Every structure is written in C-alpha cells, then in structure tokens.
C-alpha cells in the first residue's frame, strides 16, 4: 500500500469510506462527517492524498482552503490572518489499514507540499480532546494547541495551529495539564500553547 495523490475522481470512494468508519466508531463525536459538496471542494483544492489496497480506498487525508467569509473561521480561534490560512480538514483511516502510521505519513507528504506554497502561512486543525491518537498525531506533525472551545454546535474541540514560516517552540516554564481537565482548558487554554502529550498529560507554555 502506497500513498498517492487523489482528486475529485475519488469522491464516491472517500464518502463510502467515511460512512464505513463512522458506523464502526464507538465515540461518533470524534468524527465531524463532511458532506458531499464539502468533500468535493476538498478534493478539488489539490491537497488530498489516499491509500489503496486491492483497488479499495482505505485511507485519505485532505487539506481545505477556507473562504475568508466562512462562518466560525478557525483563524479567528487561533488569532491569525484568515487570508493566509489553510485547514487540515479530514483524516480517515479504515480499520483494516490502522497501525501502519498512515495518518502521520499522509500529513507529512501534504505538509511538505504546503511549505512550498507561498499562499499560506498558517495550518489549522481541530481535534476532539478525547481522540488521543489524532491529538498525538497532530502534535507529532508540529501543530500546537492554541485554544480549546466548543465548535460545530457544541462539541469540544482543541484548535491546533502551525506557523508554516516560523514554527518555533515556545519558551518558559512548562506546566502539565491532564488531557481531560476541560475546566482548566476552557478557562486558560486560549492563553497557553500545548506542545506535547505524555503519559496522559499535555505540556503547556504561557503565550
């Protein structure tokens, strides 16, 4: 199985895989399903890759270029320029392809391409706080937690951001916060940067 570029030609296969994954999820809140129209836009933005096994799509990851007029723009949550922002919008890995590191590898490939694109300075993603594999994956890729709030009609989400031109690590005295200490996150998260997940704790630095 190798990672390949995918386009809108793969739309039906992506939507079918999304539904198969969703049906098998115990915590369905972890996946914000994407509509056919939105998925078509993502696949048209030229920042999507996938993995096939015996002609079946078993993984995909896509970045999405949001309109500056988009409602609930994530750039507002991260405090950055909307016009220079792209989202890490969707990562899907079918159960039969898990354990092979595809989510991270696909992210690496897309990020390498993105850093050559002078249209963007900011990569932003959202992750459900209890989706530990996705959170670890995003932090490993270089994104950092810059806010935690309710999104998508009242669902808890970490807002993660990467400065594509100057992704420095924060300095100062770190603090360790339990990964499920939502009271702290909702009160203080916007003033801190989360960089690592170790033994059930997130390492935060004051902004």
Automatic annotation (TrEMBL):
Superkingdom assignment: Bacteria
Residue ranges of every copy of the N-acetyltransferase domain listed in the record: 1-167
GO MF annotation: an example: acyltransferase activity, transferring groups other than amino-acyl groups
Alphabetized InterPro entries for the sequence: Acyl_CoA_acyltransferase (IPR016181), GNAT_dom (IPR000182)
UniProt name for this protein: N-acetyltransferase domain-containing protein
